[in-house]
Amino acid sequence: MTRLNRSVLPLIILATLVTTVSQAISAPAPAWANRPDIAQAAVVDLKESVLFALNRDPSVNEQAAQLGIGEGMVDEARSAWFPQVALSGSTGHSRTTDSSGSMNNSAQWGMSITQLVYDFGRTNSSIDKQSKQRDSYRFQLMSTFTSVAEETALSYIDILRYQALIRVSEEGWKALDNVRQLSEFRANAGLNSRSEVLQTETRMAGMQSTLEQYRAALESATARFGVLTGITAKTYRPLPESLALEQKPISEIEYSYIPSVMAAEASEQASRHNVEGAKSEHWPSVSVRGGRTRYESSNRNYWDDQIQVVVDAPIYQGGAVSARIAQAQEARKMAASRVEQAKFDVLQKASVAAADWRGAQGREAAGALQHRNAIRTREVYKDEYKLGKRSLNDLLSVEQDVYQAAYSQTLADFDGWSAAVTYAAATDNLLPLVGIQKNITSTLPELK
């Protein structure tokens, strides 16, 4: 009986665990664990895609919340100039002894009001510092808008890119199929061997493999786009021509309007006010304090009224104030270097994008010329092949030239669009070119 119990016990434990796990799996998931939805649309354009992404991306909400924190920090700094009102009360035994005797107190309660009068700029420096820090959060939010728009636009371009490459590959496959039919016709007529048909079918199989690779890449790009925007579509509209036609040259970049530079500059100004606040700690602060307190004692009950001018003057703190000033000054130097770094980053990103843009335009033009020449050569080779003056290898070679030229032209075209998006993002011009206008009063885009 003991052996039976020992053999059954593990089975009971296993069954209990299975039951517990199945119950946990079948239990409804909490709201925070729900997966993000992806909707299906019929048609979508780049502007709508960016708006969906801005509304969906968690980093936008995070930066917006950070801006709200900045507003609260400003209000907190300003509160120092308002009267500070406090209520106090206590109960329990306490004894006060002086020259007139002793007195047992049982309770006390009252109210006090303190008003800061002057602190040699300490509070104002704190307000200015937090105001600039809030501005930095605002500019970081603007930069986040542009980053999300750039990522969405590049994903949108990838979908159009692979759709175009699929069309090019399908056209290449159809062209090879025409060659196969021609070679099969000649083989049936005894003008060439069946090996030419097999050779053409081998090329078609290779083109089919390339086509499937692009289809898989399109599915991957569509999935990524769906995660970014929350939608996928059957039709994606062409890109706006303004991206290619309305770009400012590098020499006209206004760094004072670039959000990343503006955020760094606002942080530098905040650090400057931090230095001023640290220096003001050497000076006293003056405030007025008034209060009225009620005391309950064993001998008598009475009120204690106070109206005082309070001066808080640090004399010696072991060098703490000087150390804080030194730290603030070094922090200001770091903030100033970040401003220059932000400008360097903008210039580098814009310069590389502009170079890529020009290179893509040159490659596209060369590919278009190569494609036209290859098509003319293909027609001549076909006629000569029918007359037996060209071999099948010549015809297959020119078909490869036609496909390669179309492929290079398509690739260069969308490389140019990607470079245009990157350049517009670097110069903070992407949202207006997409069609999302910025609100002049708040400098933030209208998400409509």
From TrEMBL:
SUPFAM superfamilies: Outer membrane efflux proteins (OEP)
InterPro entries given in the database record: OMP_efflux, T1SS_OMP_TolC, TolC-like
Protein keywords: Cell outer membrane, Membrane, Signal, Transmembrane, Transmembrane beta strand, Transport
Location(s) in or outside the cell: Cell outer membrane
Signal peptide start and end residues: 1-26
Domain of life: Bacteria
Keyword Signal attached: yes
PANTHER family, per database record: OUTER MEMBRANE EFFLUX PROTEIN (PTHR30026:SF22), OUTER MEMBRANE PROTEIN TOLC (PTHR30026)
Record-stated family: Belongs to the outer membrane factor (OMF) (TC 1.B.17) family.
Protein's UniProt name: TolC family outer membrane protein
